[in-house]
Fold this sequence. Notes:
With 46 residues, the protein is mainly α. The chain has one domain (1-36). The chain has one helix spanning 4-36.
Amino acid sequence: MSIWGKILGGAAGFALGGPLGALIGAAAGHAVDSLRRPRDTDQTKS
């Protein structure tokens, strides 16, 4: 689980829009993290 998108998004959002910007930036960072995460696939099928 990567948190870098949330951290960077929150920091950038805070710099641009204060606390509300931090929330929006963290939400956007979470979306980016979710898109970049490889899908869970079951590769151990017998």
